[in-house]
C-alpha cells in the first residue's frame, strides 16, 4: 500500500493535470468501488487536489468532494488526449500522468479489464481508475462532512506544524504497552506512515521497533521526530518507493528503495557492517539492525 510519499507524489501530479477541468461524465464499471451519487459531481470543476494520510481528495466546486483510496493495487492514470479506436472506446497514449501500482495492463490500451471507473473532462482528457484486486474505492462526500470525518478518524500529519517532538511524546505516552512501530503505523495517531517509513525512521533514530512506548526516553523521542521527517523527505525526494509495483506520476519507477537502510534488506549488510534482521511484528515484516538500534 502506498504511504505518504507515494500518495503525495500522485497528488502533485494530479494537481498539475486536472485543476480547473470540469467533469462531464463518470463511467462506473464496478459499482462496489464507487460510493455515492455521480450526478452530484458531473458538471463540477476541479478546484484543488489534497492528501490526507494515504488518501487523495479531489476538491470540487459546490458542496461535494471525492475521496480516493488506492489500497493495494489501485492506479490513477490521466491522459490528456485520446484517440477512439473502436466501439469499445479503447484509447491510445498521447500524454499521461499516472500513479499507483502498475500491472502488465499499464502499457496496454485503456480502458482494459482492470479499469473500473472513468472520469471524462470537458477538454477530452480522461482519468482512469484501475485496480487489479478491486480493494480500492472512490467516494462522494459532502465537503463539510468529509472534513469532519477525516479530522475525527485520522491522527496528525507528520509535515503539519502541530507535529512537534512534544506532540510525538504525547502520542507515545498514550500507548505505553504498544511497541513503537505499532504506534507509528496507527493512522488514528499519526497519518501516512506505514511499514516502509516506520522501519526507516526507527533505523535513523537508533530505536528497535519492538520496544514498548513506556521504554522510549525523551531524548529518543527527539531523535525519532527528526528521523520521521528525514525518512519521509527521502521518500519524496526520490519519487516514492517502487520496491514492489509503485510508480511515479509519469509511469517511471520511484527510486526511494535504492536508499533504504533496512526496509526489505533482511539478511543483507547494514552500513555498520552488521546484518539487517527481518522479523514478524504486528503481523508485518519488520526490518532493523541490532547493532545500530537499541
TrEMBL record:
Keyword Zinc-finger: yes or no? Answer: yes
Q: Which cofactors are named for this entry?
A: Zn(2+)
Q: Which reaction does it catalyse?
A: 2'-deoxyribonucleotide-(2'-deoxyribose 5'-phosphate)-2'-deoxyribonucleotide-DNA = a 3'-end 2'-deoxyribonucleotide-(2,3-dehydro-2,3-deoxyribose 5'-phosphate)-DNA + a 5'-end 5'-phospho-2'-deoxyribonucleoside-DNA + H(+); Hydrolysis of DNA containing ring-opened 7-methylguanine residues, releasing 2,6-diamino-4-hydroxy-5-(N-methyl)formamidopyrimidine
Q: Which domain of life is it from?
A: Bacteria
PROSITE patterns linked to this entry: FPG_CAT, ZF_FPG_1, ZF_FPG_2
What are the boundaries of the signal sequence? Answer: none
- Domain named FPG-type is located at 261-294
Complexes and interactors: Monomer.
Name of this chain's protein: Formamidopyrimidine-DNA glycosidase
Amino acid at each position: 500500500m502506498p504511504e505518504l510519499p507515494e500518495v503525495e507524489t500522485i497528488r502533485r501530479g494530479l494537481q498539475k493535470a486536472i485543476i480547473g477541468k470540469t467533469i462531464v461524465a463518470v463511467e462506473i464499471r464496478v459499482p462496489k468501488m464507487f460510493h455515492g451519487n455521480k450526478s452530484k459531481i458531473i458538471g463540477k470543476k476541479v478546484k484543488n487536489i489534497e492528501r490526507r494520510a494515504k488518501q487523495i481528495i479531489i476538491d470540487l466546486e459546490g458542496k461535494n468532494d471525492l475521496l480516493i483510496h488506492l489500497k493495494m493495487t489501485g492506479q490513477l492514470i490521466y491522459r490528456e488526449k485520446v484517440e477512439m479506436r473502436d466501439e469499445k472506446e479503447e484509447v491510445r497514449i498521447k500524454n499521461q500522468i499516472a500513479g499507483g501500482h502498475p500491472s502488465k495492463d499499464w502499457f496496454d490500451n485503456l480502458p482494459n479489464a482492470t479499469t473500473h471507473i472513468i472520469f471524462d473532462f470537458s477538454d477530452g482528457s480522461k482519468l482512469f481508475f484501475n485496480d487489479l484486486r478491486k480493494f480500492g474505492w472512490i467516494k462522494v462526500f459532502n465537503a463539510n462532512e468529509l472534513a469532519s470525518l477525516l479530522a475525527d478518524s485520522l491522527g496528525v500529519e507528520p509535515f503539519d506544524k502541530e507535529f512537534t517532538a512534544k506532540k510525538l511524546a504525547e502520542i507515545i505516552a498514550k500507548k505505553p504497552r504498544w511497541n513503537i512501530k505499532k504506534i507509528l503505523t496507527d493512522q488514528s495517531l499519526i497519518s501516512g506512515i506505514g511499514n516502509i517509513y516506520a522501519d526507516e525512521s526507527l533505523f535513523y533514530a537508533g530505536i528497535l521497533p519492538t520496544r514498548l512506548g513506556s521504554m522510549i526516553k525523551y531524548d529518543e523521542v527527539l531523535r525519532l521526530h527528526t528521523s520521521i521527517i528525514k525518512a519521509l523527505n527521502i521518500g519524496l525526494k526520490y519519487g516514492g518507493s517502487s520496491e514492489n509495483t509503485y510508480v511515479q506520476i509519469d509511469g517511471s519507477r520511484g527510486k526511494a528503495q535504492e536508499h533504504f537502510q533496512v526496509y526489505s534488506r533482511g539478511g543483507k549488510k547494514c552500513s555498520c557492517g552488521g546484518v539487517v534482521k527481518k522479523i514478524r511484528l504486528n503481523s508485518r515484516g519488520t526490518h532493523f539492525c541490532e547493532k545500530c538500534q537499541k
